[in-house]
């Protein structure tokens, strides 16, 4: 087997992104599904605005490439990846709202509530969340109901109260939203890591886990992939914090410098940029090392860890 080149990696990443775009386009078609009554045009248009025409599709890529480790990177893996992307998309729509981060720009274009209105953005996010579980429950994703249930549980646990949504609440608390003074509450490294593992890392780690579920990975293989997923999630957040601290809005595709303006604790603010970059490098090494059990078959996921650390947007 030949070593994976960087061009090969980007071809795989782009190939999955194109396949997910096509799949989402079909899933967000105007024709109602059995059990649905009607798909309101404005709501559907807003959902398509949020989901189509942008993004690296990193989370679906993780689902698909992890499943491919076990020969299972088929249409079912793409559908599971699309479900994760719907959860990610809904979280961005809601995070951008005035009651949350109050952002005006996402991926270089107006955020959904700016392009439409707050109420439509809330409903579009709600509909994307439920669509994610609709996709996973469908037999088209996997013929084995036990696999579908396991996929659903993994995504629900990582995206809800004890995962992404809970992490968002911790983030709001850290900003001082619920204190009389409204001042940020400084966090230490432990609390910052916990917040970030929930808000950002949980869905990334779950994407890897879902690929392992589809591939019917052994317990030892799942454990190795769990280490990889946790390290990747933390690496992604440090890279994101560095982009916020050092990146240009035109390149990143959204406003930068927000963390410092809000007095938020990040590993960059706690450790300093130099030490945060060193931590990032160590996390990439940890992620790559966790894949040793897979030999050369793990090269795409190894390159993914490097891509996450080196991204500029």
Automatic annotation (TrEMBL):
<dbReference type="GO" id="GO:0046872">
    <property type="term" value="F:metal ion binding"/>
</dbReference>
<dbReference type="InterPro" id="IPR033749">
    <property type="entry name" value="Polyprenyl_synt_CS"/>
</dbReference>
<dbReference type="InterPro" id="IPR053378">
    <property type="entry name" value="Prenyl_diphosphate_synthase"/>
</dbReference>
<protein>
    <recommendedName>
        <fullName>Probable farnesyl diphosphate synthase</fullName>
    </recommendedName>
</protein>
<dbReference type="GO" id="GO:0005737">
    <property type="term" value="C:cytoplasm"/>
</dbReference>
<keyword id="KW-0479">Metal-binding</keyword>
<dbReference type="Pfam" id="PF00348">
    <property type="entry name" value="polyprenyl_synt"/>
</dbReference>
<keyword id="KW-0414">Isoprene biosynthesis</keyword>
<dbReference type="InterPro" id="IPR000092">
    <property type="entry name" value="Polyprenyl_synt"/>
</dbReference>
<comment type="similarity">
    <text>Belongs to the FPP/GGPP synthase family.</text>
</comment>
<dbReference type="GO" id="GO:0016114">
    <property type="term" value="P:terpenoid biosynthetic process"/>
</dbReference>
<dbReference type="GO" id="GO:0004659">
    <property type="term" value="F:prenyltransferase activity"/>
</dbReference>
<keyword id="KW-0460">Magnesium</keyword>
<keyword id="KW-0808">Transferase</keyword>
<dbReference type="InterPro" id="IPR008949">
    <property type="entry name" value="Isoprenoid_synthase_dom_sf"/>
</dbReference>
């Amino acid at each position: 087997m030949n070593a994976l080149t960087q061009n090969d990696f980007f071809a795989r990443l782009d190939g999955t992104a194109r396949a997910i775009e096509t799949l989402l386009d079909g899933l967000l078609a105007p024709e109602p599904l059995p059990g649905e009554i009607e798909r309101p045009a404005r709501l559907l248009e807003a959902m398509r605005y949020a989901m189509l025409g942008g993004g690296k599709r990193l989370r679906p890529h993780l689902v698909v490439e992890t499943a491919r480790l076990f020969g299972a990177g088929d249409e079912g893996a793409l559908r599971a990846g699309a479900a994760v992307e719907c959860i990610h998309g809904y979280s961005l729509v809601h995070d951008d709202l005035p009651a949350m981060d109050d952002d005006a720009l996402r991926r270089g274009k107006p955020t959904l509530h700016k392009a439409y209105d707050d109420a439509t953005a809330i409903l579009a996010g709600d509909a994307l969340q439920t669509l994610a579980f609709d996709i996973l429950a469908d037999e088209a994703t996997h013929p084995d109901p036990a696999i579908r249930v396991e996929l659903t549980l993994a995504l629900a646990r990582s995206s809800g109260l004890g995962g992404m949504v809970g992490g968002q609440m911790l983030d709001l608390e850290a900003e001082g939203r619920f204190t009389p003074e409204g001042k940020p509450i400084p966090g230490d490294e432990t609390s910052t890591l916990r917040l970030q593992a929930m808000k950002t890392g949980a869905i990334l780690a779950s994407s890897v886990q879902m690929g392992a579920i589809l591939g019917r990975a052994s317990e030892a293989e799942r454990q190795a992939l769990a280490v990889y997923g946790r390290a990747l999630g933390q690496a992604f957040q440090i890279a994101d914090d560095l982009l916020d601290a050092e990146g240009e809005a035109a390149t990143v595709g959204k406003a930068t410098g927000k963390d410092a303006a809000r007095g938020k604790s990040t590993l960059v603010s706690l450790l300093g940029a130099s030490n945060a970059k060193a931590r990032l490098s160590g996390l990439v090494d940890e992620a790559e090392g966790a894949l040793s059990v897979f030999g050369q078959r793990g090269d795409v996921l190894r390159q993914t860890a490097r891509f996450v650390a080196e991204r500029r947007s």
